[in-house]
Design brief:
By secondary structure, the protein is an alpha/beta fold. 57% of the residues lie in helices and 18% in strands. The strands form four sheets. Strands 10-11-13-14-15-16-17-18 form an eight-stranded mixed barrel, surrounded by four helices. Strand 4 and strand 5 (231-237) form a beta hairpin. Helix 10 crosses helix 11. The chain is elongated. Bound molecules: ligand C2E and calcium ion (2 copies).
């Protein structure tokens, strides 16, 4: 299997560098057609007979030209399509005729052979011109294709060649590993020694690795390519288990780690290695590239120089989180964190106000879900800055909105982490004074978990907010198992029943009873109750029956751009 696969790889690369081989059968057909046409040329030229065509009688010899043209067309097709073999066969065929025609014209003085003689010479000349010209084009094409599949600097195969090889390999069930390799601190060589030296180092690394791959010194069947800069890709086949794979990659490592001397300078290189396996991790080529890369980046992040790190789904999550973290930082830097507003209504469909929801966009304009970026922001401590940006921008909206409707309330989400920050209350105070808004129109949503995790400190903060006149809502209520005693001590104004209970309310009796109970408890404690995520009329009816005060949900309004929200006022 290994040998066979190897041939496949060779063939794939050959195919890529020399494509468009026409079928052999057409070659044979052209040669046969040529022979037949030529046979008729000879017959027609010798024949004294006549033939009747469309009512006219013609000498058979007048058909010589027709067959001779047909023979020439076959010859030219052979040279154009089949290049060298076509040229050789054509030339032989034409040269064989030449002495006969020569004898006919110059020895036997047969004038009938004169056109054939000249035609033969002219065809030989044409065939040579076509062949030489074809060859030049072909060389040019080959250079072009070689450039497309090889890396300019190191002459190793490039990413395109890797994809082609993998396309071939994934047609078979045999496993293979895709190892992503990145040299450590290569940038510093470029920066301190210049790009020329950097290039020479890369060339030396490529030369060593190619030697290992070509000589099978690693004990496995390998294909080494350079992707970009100091990134390489190794495709390893023919290993039994992870141990053998590690040994194989170790051969490359030890070659790399041997001293490299360039222009009298010694370099000691190391690299990080991450890999993924076909078919266990994925059968898609693109995914294999991504997974190998993710494993490599994780190895880099963990500073694992001497370990070959295998891809795992957790690595992908880490990668994704890191990517989101980068995006959040960039968005904060460029002030690209924006917000949407979702309307809240009382049960008579009168506008109560809006909840501000953070929004972050990719460069292509698509939104990254808060469900993806908020948890990352919480973990990395960036949430404070997001909360504050949203709060500040939404306060700007509130300032305008209050001119049109002086009864509305703006809810902003505040993460527990942010709430616990010592500067939190001052930050909110600044927002209020910057926008000169009445604090009674600002509501802060805190999740229920705050009452369980850090009740004492939270209570103090919330008292401070309340003292400023700000409203407090308990978000996602019902999911946190907070006790009634906490709730009764908590100076909040609004309970937000979590969407999950509203979702199940009409299919699940206990959810419906739970919602009814939260509404009653809220009212006993003198709190208003809002249900979020209301999507259907049935949900709305049940909430109305149970005396819910407000609703927020797709049924009456999705989160919208502030401009659209302004129209609702
Ligand atoms: P949340 O505070 O519970 O916000 C409600 C979420 O439910 C919003 O999702 C909203 O779009 C969605 N929603 C509202 N009504 C419906 C409905 O009828 N059907 C459905 N399917 N969904 C509905 P979004 O905007 O994706 O926000 C998700 C979460 O992200 C929020 O949940 C909140 O916990 C967090 N978040 C959003 N913005 C901020 C922020 O500025 N700061 C902080 N700390 N967290 C935020
Ligand atoms: Ca909320
Ligand atoms: Ca919620």
């Amino acid at each position: 299997m290994t040998k066979k696969n190897n041939r496949n790889i060779d063939r794939t690369l050959r195919d890529l560098s020399l494509k468009n081989e026409a079928p052999k059968s057409a070659f044979i057909a052209l040669v046969v057609l040529y022979a037949v046409a030529y046979f008729f040329v000879v017959q027609a030229s010798r024949s004294q007979g006549e033939i009747t065509l469309f009512g006219s009688t013609l000498p058979q010899s007048s058909f010589t030209g027709v067959f001779s043209s047909l023979a020439n067309i076959c010859i030219i097709c052979l040279v154009i399509i089949y290049r060298l073999p076509g040229f050789v066969v054509s030339l032989i065929a034409l040269l064989i005729q030449f002495p006969m025609l020569y004898v006919n014209v110059f020895v036997r003085h047969n004038v009938n052979s004169l056109p054939g003689f000249f035609s033969n010479i002219l065809t030989i000349v044409s065939v040579v011109i076509i062949f030489v010209n074809n060859r030049r084009i072909q060389e040019f094409q080959k250079r072009f294709r070689d450039a497309a599949i090889t890396d300019r600097l190191t002459k190793l195969p490039n990413r395109f060649a890797c994809s082609a090889v993998m396309e071939e390999l994934v047609k078979h069930p045999a496993k293979f590993a895709v190892v992503s390799i990145d040299l450590n601190d290569f940038k510093s060589i470029n920066d301190t020694m210049g790009h020329d030296t950097g290039d020479k180092v890369l060339l030396e690394v490529a030369r060593r690795w190619k030697r290992v791959a070509d000589s099978w010194a690693s004990g496995t069947n390998d294909f080494i390519a350079r992707l970009t800069g100091d990134e390489f890709l190794l495709i390893v086949r023919g290993y039994e288990d992870t141990e053998e794979l590690r040994n194989s990659v170790n051969t490359y490592r030890s070659e790399l780690e041997k001293k490299i001397t360039i222009d009298d300078c010694d370099f000691y290189l190391t690299a990080c290695y991450g890999y993924t396996e076909y078919p266990t991790d994925s059968i898609s080529i693109d995914t294999l590239f991504v997974y190998a890369d993710a494993a490599l980046h994780e190895a880099k992040r963990r500073d694992k120089t001497n370990e070959l790190l295998k891809y795992s789904p957790e690595i992908m999550n880490i990668e994704r989180s890191l990517e989101i973290e980068r995006k959040i930082r960039a968005a904060l830097e460029k002030d690209d964190i924006s917000f949407h507003l979702q309307p809240q209504y009382d049960m008579n469909h009168k506008l109560r106000g809006f909840e501000a929801l953070a929004r972050m966009q990719d460069p292509d304009g698509s939104y990254i879900s808060p469900a993806d970026f908020i948890p990352v922001a919480e973990k990395t401590g960036l949430i404070d800055r997001i909360d504050l940006r949203v709060c500040d921008k939404a306060a700007g909206f509130l300032q305008e909105a209050l001119r049109k409707n002086d009864g509305i309330i703006l809810s902003v989400n505040v993460s527990v982490r942010h709430l616990m920050k010592n500067s939190f209350v001052d930050e909110i105070r600044k927002v209020i004074s910057d926008h000169q808004i009445d604090p009674a129109h600002l509501e802060i949503e805190i999740t229920e978990s705050v009452m369980i995790d850090s009740a004492e400190k939270a209570l103090k903060r919330i008292d401070e907010l309340k003292a400023m006149g700000i409203k407090v809502a308990i978000d996602d209520f019902g999911t946190g198992y907070s006790s009634l005693s906490y709730l009764s001590n908590f100076p909040s104004d609004l309970l937000k029943i979590d969407k999950s209970f509203i979702d199940n309310m009409n299919s699940n009796d206990s959810s419906r009873q739970y919602v009814a109970m939260i509404i009653s408890i809220g009212h006993i404690l003198n709190l208003h109750v809002i249900s979020e995520g209301v999507e259907t009329q049935e949900q709305l009816d049940v909430l109305q029956e149970n005396g819910c005060d407000y609703i927020q949900g797709y049924i009456w309004g999705r989160p919208m751009h502030p401009e659209d929200a302004a129209k609702l006022l």
